[in-house]
Amino acid sequence: MKLNNLLWLAGITSAVAQEGDAQTPLSQTVALDNLRVEVTFPEYHQDKNGVQVADLVNGVDTELDIQVTNNEASEIVLGGIGGSVLEKPAKGAKEPKVFVNLTTATLGPLTIKPGATESIRHQLTGLNLAPYDFDLALVLLAQYQEQLAAIQVGPLPVSIYDPPISSLDPRLLLIELILVATVGAVGYFGVYKLLLPYLGVAPAPKKKAKKSGSSTPTSGASSGVNANGKGYDESWIPEHHLRMKKKN
After folding, report:
1. Same domain, 185 and 83
2. Which residues of 125-160 are buried (b: 16+ CB within 10 A; e: fewer)?
3. CA distances in angstroms from 195 to 9, 112, 183, 190, listed in the order given
């Protein structure tokens, strides 16, 4: 088995879904019409026509379960997997348009005897596409009777989603903080600068803080010194005591 030829075969994966490419080396590969391949995705939903559509999330690895049944006369050796994400064909279009090619990955090599079925686990990684409905076309790269084979699987309908945002995501918290600050500023301006003047209500004036320190006397009585210059008030002294002082 010339398994090293699979490295060359990996280079043709990007051309599998190209439209009308006469130079594609696929003509150099053998067709395996009796090979059956089924791909199972972990998550599905049904569209309006009842067709199962696989759910793929950007940035999240998706494990594919690939069942391969060899109904050919000889064994096959799987060595790689690739493919393309295709746009939904427009009305009247003969072939779908390639949106992005997938990176070719190595499998095994895995030998499948005639009449046998093997299950392959493959991680679909690196998705970063616009949330939309696409078709997924996979290509299994194999060797059969000393010849190369590219087994096309699909197109399989898929829907691309963005991952849900956590409430603790720093980006979301920053947006919430900016939103609260903006709403607060707009609310303050609207109430104190627009609404209250419009209603004729003046905002309450700010209270001035009292100055600390000793107060200055405003009159002679408050300072404890009488206007007669004697330092006491004679009005409360009995009159006969005053006359006695004058005689002395």
Report:
1. no
2. eebeeeeeebbbbbbbbbbbeeebbbbebbbbbbbb
3. 74, 80, 16, 6
Torsion over CA of 9, 10, 16 and 22, rounded to 10 degrees?
-50
pLDDT band at 202 (very low <50, low <70, confident <90, very high): low
pTM of the model: 0.54
Q: Give yes or no: residues 184 and 77 share one domain.
A: no
CB 80 within 8 A of CB 110: no
- For residue 44, what is the domain's CATH number? 2.60.40.10
User: Residue 213 is encoded by which pair of tokens?
Assistant: 């320190």
Domain boundaries, position 47: 5-161
- Which tokens in the block code for residue 222? 């408050």
The 3-state DSSP composition of the chain as helix, strand, coil percent (nearest 5) reads 25, 35, 40
User: Is residue 77 within 8 Å of residue 116, measured between CB atoms?
Assistant: no
157, 53 contact by CB (below 8 A): yes
CB 86 within 8 A of CB 98: yes
Nearest to 54 by CA among 127, 145, 140, 112: 127
pLDDT digit string (tens) for 67-91?
888 888 888 888 888 888 888 877 7
Q: Could you tell me the end-to-end alpha-carbon distance of the chain, in angstroms, rounded to an integer?
A: 149
> Which of 10, 66, 8 shows the shortest CA–CA distance to 36?
66
Neighbouring CB atoms inside 10 A of 67's CB total 13
